[in-house]
Structures are given as structure tokens and as C-alpha cells.
């Protein structure tokens, strides 16, 4: 009697997180796409793809916009990577920045590196000025600068001025992340330039007490009048 081969078990469906990663990869490679295009590319149902897309949108990794196919026809909603979604893919920005600064230093000296970074800081200060209207107290300015730094990836917060939390003085500014750590470790001029930027936009003395680039857990700035 011929033995009947045992049925081959079906492959388990991909884990939700893996499906989400594949969605991000498809958007990275193919650009903006409809939910129908994404579902077909992954071999999943449109409702299933839509659920994953909603999750990714809540995480801030993708966004939507309306466009006309080929510039004509009925408008349709497409999904695309947000800046945060783009940041999940490998980048070589830090390597490029270090290479550029190294060439500047070799060609023009160490002082030129700080001049270049200070010029960048001056431009950033101009952009930030719109968020710091006249009439704000120093504490209010520090709060707004912390919010701006957080949007730039520094995860900044303010803390009470005193060790025991007493009130009355300007808060301490703390950056809990350094998105430029690779560059800052090799070129301390970057940290000096950021210190100059804070003093300029706050209109106050700024003393840095700790620095992530030196192996400490955060950058802590004491603000003075």
C-alpha cells in the first residue's frame, strides 16, 4: 500500500512588525504609492495593508497626500515616507560631515572649522528668532528653545534652576540625545558652536556642565542673566 505523504504545513503569515518594515521598504524603493499598490506588492489584503499603514502613520513614519496619476485623472491618496520614516534607513551624513570638516581643517586650520560651524549657527539663530518674539521672559525663551531642539532631535527638556527644585531663577536646559554625536566626538568645535548659538538666541550667559560627547549621559546647560 502506497504511503500518502503528509501535507506540508502552510507557512505562517509574516509577523506584523516584519510586514510594517516591508511596507516601509516598498515606499523607500518605489516612492509614493496607493494602498492598493502596496497591498499588491506585499501580497496582502487591502484592509490588512491599511491597518499596518494606520499604525505607521500614528508612529509618524509615513504620511499621506493627494495627487493625480500622471498629472491628470481622478485624485487619489498616496502614502509616502515622512522625514522620521526616512531616518529609519541607513545614512552616511555623519561620515560625509566628518570628511568635509577634516578637509577644511587640513586646508585652512582648526580655526576655520569653528568659523564654518558658527556661520551655520548664525543661520539657525535667524530661523529661531521667529519663535522668540520680544517680551518673553528668559524662562519662556528657554522653554521655546527646548521645544525647538526637541524637534531637531535633541530630546531637550528644562529643569528647575536649583538642585532641590526651588523656583525663581531660569531653568536649566538639558539635551538627552545628541543626533550629531559622531561628529561632536571628533570635532569639539561643534559643541562650542552650539554653546555660542544658545547664548545668542537666549541673550544670556550659558555654562555647559556636562556633555554627551565626553561620555556623560546628557548635555546640561545652566542659564544665567
From TrEMBL:
SUPFAM superfamilies: Winged helix' DNA-binding domain (SSF46785). Signal peptide: none annotated. The lineage of its organism: Bacteria, Thermotogati, Deinococcota, Deinococci, Deinococcales. It comes from the Bacteria. This is Putative ArsR family transcriptional regulator.
